[in-house]
Amino acid sequence: MDSETGPRLREIRSKTGLSQRQLAKASGVANATISQIESGALNPTVGMLKKVLGGIPISLSNFFADNFSFTDQVFFSADKLLQLGEGGVSYLQVGNHLQNKSIQMMKECYQPGAHTGKHAIQHEGEECGIILSGSLEVQVGDKTKVLKAGDAYYFRSTVPHHFKNVGREACELITACSPPSF
Amino acid sequence: MDSETGPRLREIRSKTGLSQRQLAKASGVANATISQIESGALNPTVGMLKKVLGGIPISLSNFFADNFSFTDQVFFSADKLLQLGEGGVSYLQVGNHLQNKSIQMMKECYQPGAHTGKHAIQHEGEECGIILSGSLEVQVGDKTKVLKAGDAYYFRSTVPHHFKNVGREACELITACSPPSF
DNA sequence: AAATAATGTTCAGTATAGTAAACAGTTAAT
DNA sequence: ATTAACTGTTTACTATACTGAACATTATTT
Prior knowledge:
Oligomer: homodimer
Largest interface: A-B, 62 and 61 residues
Number of helices of chain A: 5
CATH topology of the largest domain in chain A: Jelly Rolls
CATH class of the largest domain in chain A: Mainly Beta
Number of strands of chain A: 9
CATH superfamily of the largest domain in chain A: Jelly Rolls
Radius of gyration of chain A: 19 Å
Shape of chain A: elongated
Helix content of chain A: 10-25%
Distance between the termini of chain A: 46 Å
Number of domains of chain A: 2
Low-confidence stretches of chain A: 66-87
Strand content of chain A: 25-35%
Largest sheet of chain A: 6 strands, antiparallel
């Protein structure tokens, strides 16, 4: 019936290094259920899927938004969404050769606990962003606030700033800097 | 089990002006099923929910990302995400008083068929964007391309450009202009 | 090599999701 | 007022999601 969710669950589970039984224990469902869901032999209820994803953990929204892959084609010339970083924080940049351009737009992903380093960042220009999923602690100057999906920020980059994912799930956001900072 | 999806479905269905039976017919499921899902008496399978949402139409991703509301708090001073437009195209702007700022970041939503007008747009600066959901036909100069979720664009705004939603569902994207264009 | 502990898969039983049809209530037309 | 057409809800039935236990493989331990 829905041929996507099984393979998708398998892919995500594998990526996180969990076995079916580990995930089963963490989420409180039978391991057979996970096997059957992944193989497509079963059409899970949303309650069940939510329960299973709770063991990873990942939200339903993020699970189904997984096709937010950035691997597809990109508009204009050879501008690709480049994977710049690795590890706790990843950056996907819109366009390339930004040296003489004025905007640096990125989709960023902070793993749980990931942050921008012990020293606050400071550079020319301005920056802003919109949180897509998860939660992010944003520190700008002496102000600190935890932003959730749908929240946004805007500040002058000359003020020292620092980002940290304080939630249990990955935090995705889209940001823009002007001018590009690296 | 999952107490959110019922009320959420009811809310979305009501907003679109569909009755349970209309949606049932459009999606090919029993009206009783929709009633029971909405009342919470039933925990739908994802295949079933997908089928139901197909009659609206709205994707699973968008359905669960519904908490992408922009109504929550926003970081820094009184900067709110302002609803600027109405009708076929809506704009939610990050921050305000952008006259002497350098970035204009917005979350835009194009209803099916909606576009930026019969005359192409042209202004100073550069702009870019990332498609969150749906599909958008982007016309820049003599180049035209249909972008899907995860795709992105970047171009100089002095080149005449035009956006149009050519899909059946609403298209959401996040854009950035530098400098702000209005 | 034999034993132990993992891995994912298969199977019979039971709990429940989904259907079709009848029900009850509200609005519109005649 | 009575029909007619709509709204959402309830009910008995059947199709299937989910469980627990056994199964088959592969990797690690002793």
